[in-house]
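Thread: quick sanity check before group meeting

JM: Hey all, I'm pulling together slides for Thursday and realized we never actually wrote out the predicted structure for the chain we discussed last week. Dropping the sequence here so it's in one place. If anyone has concerns about the input, flag it before I start.
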Amino acid sequence: MSWYVLYTKPRTEKRVAESLEQMGVEVYCPLITEIKQWKDRKKKLKTPLFKSYVFIKLEEKNRNRVFDVPGVVRYLFWLGKPAIVRNEEIEVIQEWLDCEKVDDAKVDHLNQGDKISIKNGVFKDHEAIIREVGNRKMRLILPKLGCTVEVLTKEVI
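JM (edit): ok, ran it. Output follows.
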């Protein structure tokens, strides 16, 4: 069984994940807590980490079952075949979301486009490309995971 990536209609990720689970499909829809603010109130909401994407684990022969669920659009393809996500990559995302500790970071003469190797924390031994460097945070691209991460910086030199 392999992990595949499903593309869903906008804002249907959680509903699609619930429906697939009811069908007996193993689903992973990583959620983050965001604070949304309106004129009169603030509210904490659980929103998908990857907008319009849900990870599913099933056998190749059962891939078409998912199209019975409203909100499923198609599979994500890579080089003409359905994209397969390795177990290690799913585990890294799960560890990162479960980890409440934020490591301090120090930026030392780093520029946009620089390639770095992460030495500790959840993304230890992963390569990253610096997308932006600001006064208080830095945005990194993690090519192996196909995502962007913001890191709060302790000090910018």
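AS: nice. The mean pLDDT is 84. Residues 87-98 form the longest helix (12 residues).
JM: adding both to the slides.
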